[in-house]
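Q: For a teaching handout, I want to show students what a protein-ligand complex looks like in token form. Below are the inputs, and the small molecule is flavin mononucleotide. Please produce the holo structure.
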Amino acid sequence: MTTTLFVKANNRQESVSGKLYYAFLDSYRASYPDDKVIEIDLFNEPLPYLGDVMISGNFKTSQGMELTLEEKSVNDVVAKHLEQFVAADKVVIAFPLWNLTVPAVLHTYLDYMHHPRKTFKYTAEGLVGLLPNKKVALLNARGGIYAEGDSSEMAVSFVKNHLNVFGITDISTVVVEGHNQYPDQREAIIEEGIYKAVQMAKNF
Ligand SMILES: Cc1cc2nc3c(=O)[nH]c(=O)nc-3n(C[C@H](O)[C@H](O)[C@H](O)COP(=O)(O)O)c2cc1C
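A: Here is the structure, written as tokens, with flavin mononucleotide included.
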């Protein structure tokens, strides 16, 4: 059975990326009723930061050493999300551009995915991603307009860079942009994005 993981990184009521998320989810469910769908709302999850406790817990786990209770509880959170992400055939991530980058919860979630032997490995030729067959859709909203390759845009490019480390290259993207910059076109811009998300989900 195909498993698809839906990750939402926004808790704003009127969130545009939230609208994309639900439009994609409804369309996907209608198109693939037999698939297993798992949803995570990152703002409703305890997500400890990457730091000393997590790093030492990871190190001790890799060496077969005993963890402190604090390290173990942090390690269990990371392991839960990592295993879920690795096991999913397809992943959909919805997120806004806030202050030029992703919400902190998504940054933290992506930190959890970096695991030598599970998502990448080191070789003499360099780093090799271990998840080349995973398919990902990114649903993003940003109030301004950013040219392709604009280095000040660190949300879509940021997530793509992480996914590339894991060997994921099959990445589809819907970006709604410019609805704050051009308020008179706001509704039309958002509607067009929702339409694209619905269409993308049908063939995802
Ligand atoms: C805290 C905050 C920071 C923002 N930073 C940016 C920004 O750096 N660049 C930009 O173009 N728009 C920015 N915006 C506008 C958002 O990208 C826009 O409102 C978009 O719709 C956010 O997605 P959402 O509606 O799913 O929350 C920001 C909005 C907020 C609330």
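A: Two things your students might notice: Helices lie at 16-31, 52-62, 69-87, 104-112, 156-165, 186-202. The domain at 3-202 is CATH 3.40.50.360 (Rossmann fold).
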